[in-house]
Input
Amino acid sequence: MRASRVPYLFLAPAMALFTLFMALPIGYTIYLSLRGAKVSGLGLGKGARSEIFVGAANYTDALADGALWNGWLRVLAYGLLVLVVMLGLALLFALLLDTAHVRLARFSRISIFLPFAVPGVAATLMWGFLYLPSLSPIRAVLDVDLLGPTAVTFSMANIAVWGGVGFNMLVLYTALRAVPRAYYEAARIDGASEIQIALRIKIPILLPAIILTTVFSIIATVQVFTEPTALRPLTNTISSTWSPLMKVYRDAFVTGDLYSAAATSIIIAAISLVLSFGFLRVVRDRAFGEG
Amino acid sequence: MAAATRTAAHAAMRGALPLGFTSTAVLLLGAVYCLFPVSWVLVAATKSKAELFSISAFAPGTGLLSNLADLAAYRDGVFWLWLLNTLLYAGGGALLSTVVSTVSGYTLAKYRFPGRNVIFNLLLGGILVPAVVLAIPQYLLFSTVGLADTYWSVLLPQILHPYGIYLARVYAGAAIPDTLLEAGRIDGAGHGTLLRKVALPLMLPGMVTIFLFQFVAIWNNFLLPYIMLGDDQKFPLTVGLYTLLAAGANQPSLYNLIITGALVSIIPLIALFLTMQRYWRTDLSSGAVKH
Output
């Protein structure tokens, strides 16, 4: 009887933290997103502003908000760039590290993983200075305003790719290392080339890990905030509503419209859930099918 | 690096697989890309105010010591306070997080009880919840109890770490033999003793990995402290650096300070990262650290 209580006791701290810092905030956000401010008279004095239930009004407002839509389009372009380039490079590097006859593999692996240890703000700051016309060594070879209206999406995607490629490479590489070498030997005896082995054997084996890294990357990309926020002081190209999350921050803390901020953050959450749910199902089936 | 490329080329000429040479070259390109901004900031931090804009980007200057002195003197040494705060948030948060994750992961892996999968899925589902849905209501809830803008407001929400619990569960499953627990039980060991004397020692390498991941995640976090804190005496480095950038982006005379600040703020993590190489290599997907 006492034994049956033990696992719940051991899990109590995690469940308490989950309740306080996840379930409660999520519930509160949903509650706020359905509320609104009612201003009576001139809106001055105590009691002139009250909170009322407004139903889905905050959501319909958010869906009709042009600034938010522009933010979504920017993040869509940025996100596609980041996902394709970052995961593509991570996969390429992981496969290359796993091939025979690679020299200096340790040096390359550590160097490519190094940006993982650099905070997003510091990374943005370093790249931001490298983009700055007065300082940029890049400008010496590439005559483009890297902080201009068109280029800024690419410049920002570059910061995310730089920061994320190493971590994703590591996840894929460790998954590859767990595969018994005998798999490849059999293929080699059958005359398969290294490239065929990579395409026909390694990539299919890596699929769950690729899906996992994709899910994490989608979630991170949809809520991009640090890079555009930290890049803003260096250029006028980035508005205070460049990404949807930046608009949430502005609504909540600058214009003080908590209700629309809550609705928008629920929409951001819903979009990342919808995008990653299909992926996650496959991951769970593969990783925990036996557990 | 030139010498290294030459050795690789030499090996290729001697008749090793040309694929090995191409792989090495591509990986080295990736390494150069990832080291580029870090090396630039390292060189730029050595330049005096005049040198920053006059001499070539990768030529070292003579101003490193005066830059460091300027940084130390900036607003009565607030930068060092930010560094200490970051250590406190990341060190304390990661320590608590590791304990909670390990105990939870062990319980979920080694006990059978009603609701086990529901609890695991709930906790793991936290990975999918975007930080934005949590940060703003967390701020409001902390304000309600008078804890916004305190150390607690940054520390507490970062203890629960779904990924850490996932890693701990996988790790416990692989590293703790059931027979050992069974033997302990027959010898009359209680659940607490089994946890302390059997489970935790076996899980130690996995705990280091979980600690490192959470340490880096908290160190690099920008959104949560940016929302929670108003008093710059409590800022971590990320928020401090951002305010430094926001204040100095229009004043090229402050660039040296910002660049030196960026360099100093990435050195501790890079050092930790390089000295703890072994633990970053642990297998994320299967928990097997034995090879």
